[in-house]
Write a structure and sequence with these properties.
The chain is built from 17 helices and no strands. It is mostly helical. One of its GO terms (biological process) is septin ring assembly.
């Protein structure tokens, strides 16, 4: 037994030793990897980046940056490379002693120091690249600044006339940039690249603004000396022509406003001469806004007259037609009010429309009188165009509706009388057919229905003699009577159909009576029901009897009857 225990212990020892050896191998590989990373960061070529700076003037700011970057790199590399090396060496010792946890901790510490070196390299190379890029941009802006300076100087010398009184101030401004352009070179020679870049950036933008101003000045002078005065004249003469055509433009105050604008315009050239272009632009913008406002008001007057001229004839016709129709309606109402009942609200509407039409005519006459004066402010009266159109149209539509109603009174009266005559004729015709049919006796219901229809007819005929006649009431009564007549007719023909079909069915079944006792019994029952005026039930019994001996025969008999 102890032999097996010993073997198990030996096996466990061997496994434990193997695991320890495997872990030591893994940790050793991790240490070797960190050594490789440390070697790589130690070989980073930051000195090559610094060498590029020797192409510049290593004085002043450039020398300070060069020394700063070199010191930061050397300090970082020496300090953290030493820390990383010490940590890795300690990690190796920990591995040999199978202290894997401490080995891992030292290995991670070495990695942190290696990462610090790498990050510092990235940071410093980015700063160096930013410096070189800024220097190159400064060189480009310096070249562009010199070009702008030369072009500005040449433009003033060659085309000074187009700048007017601004020529001399421009020459002075341009001359002031001559030493400014040279200052950049001195700063660069002194190695002060950062200050040189800031300086040339400002100078370049100032020269761009100067170029824009030089492009704008001739346009401003042209606008002040030619374009705006011409617009003032065009507006003044245009308004005079419109006044001669009858337009009232006093509310626009053209002369007073143009005088004020001319005074403001006289302030612009001195401002341009002093190169105060922003204030000059502001004054010109306000002048344009004022001109636009006056043009808009004038255009509004012209459009108002066009609208008035375009709507004048239409309104004349509509008001004339409305007045004529109103007179017709009042006359017609007076004529038929004793004959027919007319809704009092319609009568009141027609009276009100008379007053409204007169009011619209009064407004329209006032507009016409206004336009017949020497001058007219059309914008003050044009709003009445829509008011007159809309109200005249509304009155026209509603008066037409009332007229159609008055016309319909006679038509509805005639139609109601015709319908009543037709109902009376149909009633007599149906009743005669009932009396001539094969019914044993006339069912009482038809006598009652006929009587009700006759009572209605008599009542309506009596109502027709009344004055004024309420056509709506009569129409409703006639319609009710028509419905009663329809019901009377439908039920009468249904009973006559049932009775005649019953006879046909019995006649057809008689041929089988002698041979079929059941059929004979059913037909006897049908005849009994027929004599009791129960025609619908008699037909059903007779149909079933015939169908029992000859299927399909009942439907055939019924079809032949309906087709005849």
């Amino acid at each position: 037994m102890w032999v097996y225990i010993l073997i198990a212990i030996i096996i466990l020892v061997i496994v434990a030793a193997a695991v320890l050896l495997y872990l030591r191998s893994v940790k050793t590989q991790m240490i070797d990897t960190q050594y490789s990373r440390l070697h790589e960061v130690n070989q980073l070529p930051f000195k090559l980046d610094l060498v590029k700076l020797k192409n510049y003037n290593l004085h002043g700011e450039a020398k300070e940056l060069y020394d700063k970057w070199q010191d930061e790199w050397n300090e970082t590399l020496n300090t953290h490379s030493t820390h990383a090396t010490n940590a890795l060496e300690q990690s190796k010792i920990n591995v040999e002693q199978f202290k894997f946890a401490k080995s891992t901790k030292n290995n991670e510490l070495a990695g942190e120091n290696i990462e610090i070196i790498k990050n510092k390299y990235d940071e410093l190379t980015e700063e160096v690249a930013g410096f070189t890029k800024a220097v190159e941009e400064g060189k480009h802006q310096n070249i562009e600044s010199e070009r702008l300076y030369r072009e500005a100087k040449r433009d003033v010398l060659a085309n000074g006339h187009k700048f007017g009184d601004a020529k001399k101030p421009l020459e002075e401004v341009i001359k002031a940039y001559e030493p400014e352009v040279a200052r950049y070179e001195k700063m660069v020679n002194d190695g002060n690249y950062l200050r040189a870049n800031e300086f040339i950036f400002n100078t370049y933008n100032e020269l761009l603004n100067l170029k824009d101003s030089m492009d704008e000045i001739p346009k401003l002078i042209k606008e002040v000396q030619k374009e705006l005065p011409q617009q003032f004249q065009e507006l003044r003469y245009g308004c005079r022509d419109l006044r001669a055509k009858g337009y009232d433009l006093d509310h626009i105050k053209v002369e007073n406003r143009l005088s004020t604008l001319k005074s403001n315009l006289n302030r612009v050239e001195p401002l341009v001469a002093k190169l105060e272009l922003e204030e000059a632009d502001s004054i010109l913008e306000s002048i344009h806004d004022e001109l636009d406002d006056m043009y808009e008001l004038v255009e509004h007057e012209v459009n108002a007259k066009n609208k008035f001229d375009g709507g004048k004839d239409v309104i004349t016709d509509e008001l004339f037609n409305a007045k004529a129709l109103n007179y017709t309606l009042r006359t017609e109402i007076d004529y038929i009010k004793d004959q027919y009942h007319i809704d009092e609200s319609d009568v009141q509407k027609v009276m009100n429309y008379e007053n409204e039409i007169e009011n619209l005519i009064s407004i329209y006459s006032g507009m016409i009188e206004e336009t017949e004066k020497n001058t007219t402010r059309y914008s003050a009266i044009v709003d009445n165009i829509d008011y007159l159109k809309n109200n005249a149209h509304t009155i026209h539509e509603e008066q037409n509706s009332i007229q159609e109603h008055l016309v319909s009174l006679r038509e509805d009266d005639a139609e109601a009388r015709e319908n009543l005559r037709y109902v009376n004729d149909r009633k007599e015709k149906v009743y005669r057919e009932l009396m001539a049919s094969n019914l044993v006796t006339l069912p009482e219901q038809f006598i009652v229905m006929k009587h009700e229809i006759e009572v209605n007819i008599k009542e309506i005929e009596n109502y027709f003699s009344r004055r004024p006649l309420n056509v709506e009431y009569v129409k409703a009564k006639v319609n009710d009577t028509v419905l009663m007549m329809n019901k009377f007719e439908q039920e009468a023909y249904a009973v006559m159909r049932d009775s005649e079909l019953t006879e046909l069915m019995i006649q057809y079944g008689n041929r089988f009576r002698s041979t079929d006792a059941d059929l004979n019994a059913h037909l006897n029952e049908a005849e009994r029901l027929f004599k009791e005026n129960r025609y619908k039930r008699a037909l059903d019994v007779a149909k079933d009897a015939v169908e029992s001996v000859e299927p399909g025969s009942a439907a055939k008999i019924e079809k032949q009857y309906d087709n005849n």
